[in-house]
Amino acid sequence: MDFKRLLGNPLPRDLMHLGHRTTMLRVSDIKLIGRAYENLRDALDPRIDMIVHCHNEFDLPSAIGLAKAVAPIQPLWIEDALPVLYNDTWKRFKDASPVPVLTGEKLELTREFEPFLVNQAVDMLQPDILFAGGLTGSWQIADMADRCYIPVTAHNIGTVVQNAVTAHFAASARNFVMTETRLGSGHTLDDLIEEKLEVVDGKLAVPTGPGLGITIVEEAVRANMAPGEPYWD
Question: Comparing 1-103 with 104-233, is the CATH topology the same?
């Protein structure tokens, strides 16, 4: 769950830009966020777990303050609280945070994930298959994390194709926990493949056909390409 609207502070258009300045949360902001999450925790079924979602935008004091403010609701983790790339500040944040720390959706390949593991700066990692180096890169990252007893999740807000590929990654990584997804929200362009992905009780069935188990619909792909983008064969 995100809290940007609560603060009236919209996200920048280019979330992938590494040069965004960090934001400092005021004490009043942190108290408001903490109270909002506590209200949600009281309203929701206790069997529903919660995650605190950031966008790599805060400075260290704000990240620590936020983690302490949401600690009473016992979130599964706090996500992407500091800027993207590793430095020692991540280690300081993880050591000070009373809740598990996760990052990874904007990191690329094993070279950007490795410092977080070597320096014990996270409790969980979250690769996105599109940035992590495909299935091969994601498996390498999951294997590195597994040797450190670190679980992995998946960042996955792409089309139905990315959901199918993520399902195969999930089924083949021994330390995999869960995936983000937009399935069912109308944003995954379900007509890009002939098969329909099956979700039952929050669990996605792994496609069982040859290869990735999906059949691309060329007409649907062409209809959703960016202007001027060439079709691949």
Answer: yes
Tokens 């430095």 sit on residue: 87
Q: Which residues contact residue 102 at a Cβ distance below 8 angstroms, ignoring those fewer than 6 apart?
A: 77, 78, 79, 80, 122, 123, 124, 125, 126, 153
CATH no. for 1-103: 3.20.20.120
| Domain residue ranges in the chain | 1-103, 104-233
Question: For the segment 61-77, what is each residue's pLDDT rounded down to a tens digit?
Answer: 999 999 999 999 999 99
- The model carries a pTM of 0.91
CATH architecture of 104-233: Alpha-Beta Barrel (3.20)
For the stretch 90-141, pLDDT in tens is 999 999 999 999 999 999 999 999 999 999 999 999 999 999 999 999 999 9
CB-based burial label for 223 (10 Å; 0-12, 13-18, 19+) = exposed
Dist CA 200 CA 162 (whole Å): 18
